[in-house]
């Protein structure tokens, strides 16, 4: 059969067209299957990416939460330490304030005692200048009626010494002993006064 016979036979034309359509359909089917396979692979890959992304987000959230918990715990510990320090400082301030009040009260008492000693010393000096040396007992009874106890004790010792036979001791010697006792008491009070001043200055700073 030559080419002219094939062109003139319509059955051959139909068979050729059917064969061409069959090949085209088969090709399209294969392409469709390839596309489906590729689509399934893409979907599987997409699902894997979503799962991985979700895991990363969950991990990130967990890490952030863990970090937040650690930071909160650290801050709470710092707050507790600061509360303890505040309590200790408050207690220390109360103790210092109480000691300060005690020192101020002692300072006031020492100041009053020092002033009283100075007044008595002045009275003794004035009395000794105004009275003759033949009146020792009148002078002592007049000048030392309000003198503090340590000085009164020294005065009594001097009087007892005279009563026991020590009458040869002159009024000047007795006065010197009394003045010496007063000066010693005054020096001791001034030393205590200076110590209290130093402590008060230290507490103010």
Helices, strands, pairings?
Blueprint: H1 3-8, H2 10-130, H3 136-143, H4 149-163, H5 171-204
Describe the protein in words.
There is one protein chain. The protein is mostly helical. Helix 2 runs antiparallel to helix 5 and helix 4 runs antiparallel to helix 5. The relative contact order is 0.06. Keywords: Coiled coil. This is Protein spindle-F isoform X2.
Task: Identify the notable features of this structure and list them briefly.
mainly alpha, 5 helices
Level of helix content? Answer: over 70%
Task: Tell me how many strands there are.
Answer: 0
Radius of gyration: 59 Å
| Strand content range | under 5%
3D shape? rod-shaped
Number of helices: 5
- How far the N terminus sits from the C terminus, by CA atoms, comes to 130 Å
Largest sheet: none
Give helix and strand order, one letter per element, not per position.
HHHHH
How confident is the prediction overall: mean pLDDT? 68
Low-confidence stretches: 1-8, 133-148, 158-168
By helix and strand content, what is the structural category? mainly alpha
């Amino acid at each position: 059969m030559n080419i002219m016979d094939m062109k003139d036979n319509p059955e051959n034309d139909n068979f050729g067209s059917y064969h061409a359509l069959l090949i085209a359909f088969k090709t399209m089917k294969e392409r469709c299957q390839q596309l489906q396979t590729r689509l399934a692979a893409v979907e599987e890959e997409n699902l894997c990416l979503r799962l991985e992304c979700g895991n990363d987000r969950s991990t990130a959230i967990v890490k952030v939460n863990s970090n937040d918990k650690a930071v909160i715990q650290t801050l709470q510990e710092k707050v507790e330490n600061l509360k303890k320090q505040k309590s200790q400082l408050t207690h220390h301030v109360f103790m210092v304030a109480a000691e300060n009040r005690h020192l101020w009260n002692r300072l006031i008492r020492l100041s009053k005692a020092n002033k009283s000693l100075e007044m008595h010393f002045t009275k003794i000096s004035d009395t000794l200048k105004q009275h003759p040396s033949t009146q020792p007992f009148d002078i002592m009874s007049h000048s030392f009626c309000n003198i503090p106890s340590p000085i009164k004790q020294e005065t009594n010792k001097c009087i007892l010494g005279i009563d026991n036979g020590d009458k040869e001791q002159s009024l000047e010697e007795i006065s010197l002993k009394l003045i010496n006792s007063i000066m010693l008491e005054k020096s001791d009070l001034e030393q205590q006064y200076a110590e209290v001043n130093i402590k008060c200055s230290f507490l103010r700073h």
